[in-house]
Write a structure and sequence with these properties.
74 residues, mainly alpha, elongated
């Protein structure tokens, strides 16, 4: 189980990268309804949401890398 956890964390990081791109490239009216920041008729781009998602992705990648390095020593 612990051998697959870094992979799962890395995949979740990739999902957050994709989410950051969606927030960066899509105006608020074009976002899917289930995402925070959806505003009908708005042309605003949620840069703060994009940066937040990118930051979460980078933290998840760092956790996955450290986890790989720690498990490689076993």
């Amino acid at each position: 189980m612990t051998k697959s956890m870094p992979w799962i964390v890395g995949i979740i990081g990739v999902v957050f990268i994709a989410l950051a791109l969606v927030y960066w490239l899509t105006p608020a009216a074009g976002l899917p309804h289930f995402l925070p920041g959806f505003e009908p008729g708005s042309d605003r781009v949620h840069v703060t949401h994009a940066l937040g998602s990118l930051l979460v992705a980078l933290v998840l990648f760092a956790i996955a890398i450290v986890w790989f390095q720690l498990s490689a020593g076993d």
